[in-house]
Amino acid sequence: MSQPLLEVTGLTKQFPTAGGLVRAVDDVSFAMARGEVLGLVGESGSGKTTTGRAILRLIEPTAGRICFDGTDITHLDRTDLRAYRRRMQIIFQDPYASLNPRRKVKDAIGEALVIHGLGTKVDRRDRIAALLQRVGLPADAMERFPHEFSGGQRQRIGIARALAVEPDFIVADEPVSALDVSVQAQVVNLLQDLQAELGLTVLFIAHDLAVVQYISDRIAVLYLGRVMEIASAEQLYSRPRHPYTEALLAAAPIPDPTRRSQRTPLQGDIPSPLNPPSGCVFRTRCPHAIAACATQIPPLVEVAPGHQKACIRDDIL
N or C: lower Cβ tally within 10 Å for the chain? Predict the structure, then answer.
């Protein structure tokens, strides 16, 4: 791999609460090549959204290093970070909450253009019209308010807003989870087409494994803030090497109602991040756990070319 566009090393984010510190993200490391789509999956509470927002510095990391296009941006001040903000954008999960109901679409999309001083007023209007058409909406939609659109249309506006300043990297934070199933495929296909057309590097956050498999080149599996496995989409689905990934795949619905999954489904609930298990954080739900799992934190190691897992057992899967 040539120099990655994004390299995350030891990323950690802790939140203070009345009950103590919550470690939402714990020593997460991965790299992304230019033009790559990396899926980030895991149950609710696994730290996916926190990871994405910490990378963008929308929330400040507690520890670790974020390197973007060869520059360490972890501790850049607001002024120096502005140039990188143009190159790193986000598509939010909730298309209803992410748009100001009092502002017209042209203002929502054009805000970043104004902030970064891009183009004249006429240029910006033309740019907004072109963006709306690119995401499948009419140019005159810019004069309307968010409440006049459906959820799927609002998410298309959110995508246009993220693309307005021509970024290199986008965090797509569960961009279809709040949409009707009938609309999800349309939005995912739009994102896939735009990614290929524009050469975007995308961190695609989701809990739906079918969606992630469809759009991603590689997939990272997160559990209680720690990476359990990273592999190509094909490797991960054909031969998962971590018990948590195996369990997630077992829980995924099978399109053919006459077939039954041969995998063991996940049991129990995810532990509280206020009091995570010692050693391997997955051990309390793992069917293969042994005594050593309670004392050893498994490092993320390569078990096959391009395939990493965090598990002390080599004799399973």
Answer: N
Residue type, position 311, single letter: C
CA 135, CA 189: separation in Å to the nearest integer?
A: 11
Residue 315 is predicted with a pLDDT of 83
This prediction's pTM: 0.94
Rounded CA-CA distance 43/63 in Å is 23
237, 213 contact by CB (below 8 A) = yes
CB 99 within 8 A of CB 146: yes
Which residues, in sequence order, are CB contacts of 253 under 8 Å at separation 6+? 210
Query: Smallest Cα–Cα separation from 61: which of 80, 74, 73?
Result: 74
Q: Which of 71-80, 264-273, 304-313 shows the lowest per-residue confidence on average (mean pLDDT)?
A: 264-273
Supply the DSSP symbol for 228. Answer: E
